[in-house]
Amino acid sequence: MTQATTRKRTISVAPMMDWTDRHCRMFHRQITRHAWLYTEMVTTGALLHGDVQRHLDFNDEEHPVALQLGGSEPDDLAKSAKLGEQWGYDEINLNCGCPSERVQKGAFGACLMGEPALVADCVKAMRDAVSIEVTVKHRIGIDDVDSYDFVRDFVGTIAQAGCNTFIVHARNAILKGLSPKENREIPPLKPEYAYRLKKDFPELEIIINGGIKTVEEIDLHLRHLDGVMLGREAYHNPYLMASFDARYYQDEAPAKTRAEVLQAMIPYIADQLARHGKTANGGGLRLNSITRHMLGLMTGLPGARAFRQTLSDSRRLAEGDPALLLDAMARMQPVRALVA
Q: Which of 17, 125, 132, 239 has a CA 20 to 30 Å removed from the CA of 45?
């Protein structure tokens, strides 16, 4: 086990489709050295019948990093988990919380909460295939089934299969009638369900997710639970994470300033563009594929709008020059003292 994998999951950044790709995770790692990072959900079909390297390649600097899998066939999940371990991930996470129609058609994601015995079989198959940790991310209920007993029994069944870590998105998943976005906002949050799970299963690692935006909220949850997973707030306001290493991991090494974060990303971007840049047929990596994840870096500062506008300038992005990051910061001239 590497030193990275011994770090606690006190704070983590949620798997978010179309957002938490390797470039986003590399950016987040410049802000926090210790928070656990999760991939976007990768389906077993994509790994077993698609381009494995495209889906699993990541940067060594991302550790600790977890691979989230989507699927419901124990054998396929076991093979996919093995691939994840071979590629060097620190954890395999099973998605039992996504409510999208695409996931429902595949009979996995939040649908799996209605089949705890199948989830237990999936977890056992993965644990038999790998030596790294296998965890589960789930909701507290599905549709109008919202009693605490439901999620308690789900967790109890999966725990018997050897899963020790549960990431609880403390809302129901409404499988019909709500979009994925609405499912993140409309069903009421019930953090008390996560708290009760920890009381009922004190030996398990219970991590809460859903609607968490401030360090005050994080501190409150950590009085009751083992960890907190941030979602959209970590993406839209990433510099919130700059205090996490000292606050939650007792690491007193200074956090990078916003300017230092930008400086650290420039050689990474240049390297990625050199390796995977535009091809003759118009494919390949574009500067915007990386900079789009950085638009929120100046959130809350005067001049943040000018920063975002510069990073979104299609003409400048087409030039493929990572110095655009410095130009974006320079447009914040009145507040450069705050970011330098």
A: 132
Return the H-helix or E-strand segment holding 11: strand 11-13
Structure confidence by residue, pLDDT tens digits, 177-217? 888 888 888 889 999 999 999 999 999 999 999 999 999 99
Give exposure, 18-47, as e/b (b: 16+ Cβ within 10 Å): ebbbbbbbbbbbbbbbbbbbbbbbbbbebb
Q: What is the pLDDT of residue 280?
A: 52
- Please name which of 92, 94, 93 lies closest in space to residue 115, comparing C-alpha atoms: 94
Looking at the domain that runs over 4-249, which CATH code has it been given? 3.20.20.70
Give pLDDT, residue 337.
52
In the chain, DSSP finds a helix count (H) and a strand count (E) of 18, 10
Helices within 133-227 (DSSP H only) = 148-160, 180-183, 191-200, 215-222
Higher pLDDT, 7 or 83: 83
Q: Residue 195: what residue type?
A: Y
Among residues 24, 96, 98, 111, the one annotated as catalytic is 98
Does position 3 have pLDDT exceeding 50, yes or no?
Answer: no
Domain boundaries, the chain: 4-249, 258-339
Q: What is the pTM of this model?
A: 0.93
Binding residue ranges for FMN = 15-17, 68, 137, 169, 209-211, 231-232
Is 98 noted as a catalytic residue in this protein? yes
Which of 138, 85, 80, 133 has the alpha carbon at shortest distance from 109? 138
pLDDT in tens, 257-300: 999 999 999 999 999 999 987 765 567 899 999 999 999 999 99
